[in-house]
């Protein structure tokens, strides 16, 4: 166990470096159109010496481009220090290889996104009331359309610390997309943002592809998004890698995710969400600030995929048409947690072809707690999860409460299911190593359970499955093993 925790971050860092070295040769970014007007920021007075503040010349170039109907803003090789870059409709920001945009330490040079009045029926729960400091960003896409950020360069937030910011240290976001549509970000590296690397709020038709995101807080965080595609991204963050909610028609695919918090965290409802062909691993390369005074940065990864609409504030709506498949999860506290809160129901949730190894703390769960909240039509198919829990306090867990914002220890080592109409486990394998003493599964207020081809390691002298209340169980071809 210790060897894995020591050498895996080193392996990840080497992978990041190798990916960056190979990026220019293997990925062909969206090319500058031969017919589009090109505006080189140097021609407007920008200096890429890593010292000169370039906020005004870069934005002058964008103004000229937009006033002429649109085109491409070219960032050539160099290190261009700047405050907020305000992108406009029909503008492409193109970073050449070895071109870097760096956030200035002068927080006065950052602009805020002006959040409009929140819809009371769909509150997105961002810390924005009376707090324009929180919504500042290095690149701001504010109420515009047809915007592209691409190339092979780097957007470096500079880890700007703001003592007036969230938690007394969070600075500007890297890229903030607010109330905008038809936005594409591809190819670039986004690093060291003061807060979220990419924040989206009430956005539509957005593609985020072939990105490398490192450090900062959350990697990609979207509160209110329709028709969103996150594809082939490498995300290594201290906080949640991908997070948000009120998603409709969202696909996350072919991503490599490493976090010192959660891999994918949903905190508000979602409809028609697909997560596929992703690898989620811990421990995190970049530490999270939830430790002690003596050890402030913690690198252990919490949950691979956690869905908890309403966890940070009531958000009415359903969690439905969720398809999670072809996922590899490694060395996190728990693989999967799905929880309903007030005003939420769940329907048509499928988890297929998922392999999780090195799960070392909490069982997977599907839980609905409030009166009136319930799951129906839940399927786990072709799922394999291997546990190794050696913490005596966890092994002896007998009582538990409703979860808050994270998964927690349970008196079952494999799965806990609560308040579900019907759930199916088909070709599911649960295994453990160590001195396990708990039952494998627990069902509470579950109407119908169908076990088809279930295989699991036996805990000597312990009943494998426990039920609370009336539950109709169909059990075909179960295969307990020693």
Any overview of this molecule?
This protein has 482 residues and is mainly β. It contains three helices and 34 strands. The chain folds into two domains: 28-237, 3 Solenoid (Pectate Lyase C-like), CATH 2.160.20.10; 238-482. It is elongated. The model is unreliable at 1-8 and 17-29 (pLDDT under 50).
Keywords:
482 residues, disordered N terminus, mainly beta, 10-stranded parallel beta barrel, Pectate Lyase C-like, 3 helices, 49% strand
Topology:
Blueprint: H1 2-26, E1 38-40, E2 49-53, H2 55-67, E3 71-75, E4 78-82, E5 85-87, E6 91-95, E7 99-103, E8 111-112, E9 136-142, E10 145-151, E11 154-156, E12 173-178, E13 181-186, E14 189-191, E15 198-209, E16 212-214, E17 220-231, E18 234-237, E19 242-253, E20 256-259, E21 264-266, E22 270-281, E23 303-307, E24 317-330, E25 334-340, E26 344-359, E27 364-368, E28 375-388, H3 392-395, E29 415-433, E30 441-452, E31 455-457, E32 465-468, E33 472-476, E34 479-481
Parallel strand pairs: 1-3, 2-4, 3-6, 4-7, 5-9, 6-10, 7-11, 9-12, 10-13, 11-14, 12-15, 13-15, 14-16, 15-17, 16-18, 17-19, 18-20, 19-21, 19-22, 20-22, 21-23, 22-24, 23-25, 24-26, 25-27, 26-28, 27-29, 28-29, 29-30, 29-31, 30-32, 30-33, 31-34
Antiparallel strand pairs: 8-9
Characterize the biggest β-sheet.
10 strands, parallel, barrel
| Percent in strands | over 45%
Assembly form of the protein: single chain
Helical percentage: under 10%
Separation, N- and C-terminal Cα atoms = 23 Å
Give me the count of strands. 34
Radius of gyration over C-alpha positions, nearest whole angstrom = 23 Å
The low-confidence runs, each spanning 5 or more residues with pLDDT under 50, are 1-8, 17-29
Mean pLDDT: 91
What's the number of helices? 3
Number of domains: 2
- Read across the widest sheet, the strand sequence of neighbours is 19-21-23-25-27-29-28-26-24-22
Shape, please?
elongated
The assigned structural class equals: mainly beta
